[in-house]
Amino acid sequence: MTDQRLRAVAHTATLLTIVIWGTTFISTKVLLSDFSPLEILVFRFLIGYAALWAVYPRFVPFRRWREELLFAAAGLCGVTLYFLLENIALTYTYASNVGIIVSVAPFFTAAAAHLILKDEGLHLSFLIGFLIALAGIALISFNGSYVLKLNPLGDGLAVLACVCWAFYSVLMRIVSRLDRPALGSTRRVFFYGMLFMLPATAMLDFRWDLHRIAEGANLFNLLFLGLGASAMCFVAWNWSVGVLGAIRTSAYIYLVPVITVIAAYLLLEETITATALAGALLTLVGLVVSERRLIGRKRFDENENLSA
Questions:
Q1: How confident is the model at residue 134, as a pLDDT?
Q2: What's the predicted TM-score (pTM) here?
């Protein structure tokens, strides 16, 4: 497969991942009637972990402690801390606040990649696209109310969730260079993520009450979160980070509020206002602008190679 086709597949995989992640709120909303946020998190990743063993039953051998520390750090940042901080933040502040703050994750990712990775750096078009997308996300989240009520604790936890996701994306970029299969690497990350969840199950609201899963709606939504949003999407995301880089892949997070609005309209029959439509358009423009320089730079490099 040529590099250009490989990148096209990675862009498609990332877009499909974002489409699924943008609809997970519906499943979570249904499950919250019978499960706590921590219970949903543990059960979905247990299902995802089992699915990855079924699809890829090969054992990933230990090679050196440095690699294991990378897997452990990725599991802590991208599985345990990100989701726990985001869910806890929702109990202290407004969903609209969390929606805006979490969608800023690409900026934190770009900053972390700029500081840690040598082959990825910030550029002006990314920053302009970020500001445009942020304006669109704000319009979608407020949806015409234009009322921003700050809550230092909840909003601060949402910011920390963004920082954790940024480091997760950078760590997975480094992991992608270890010559490990994406399925095996993701499964190892899930293992450490669940390992770090164990203390939370002892301290927070958690029950190993499995009869709730047998109910039709609960089973369907947990399978969707575990098989789709966790196993399949994390593998696709981690592989795409290795192909496109942490910055370009994370820019797709801008689309999550857009997908959420569309899903709410189609599945929950919620109204889409003109404000939300304008916000969706701005968000799409911000994504295109953020990717613009890298596309233009690639073409320039190709022309230089041809002239040589």
A1: 73
A2: 0.78
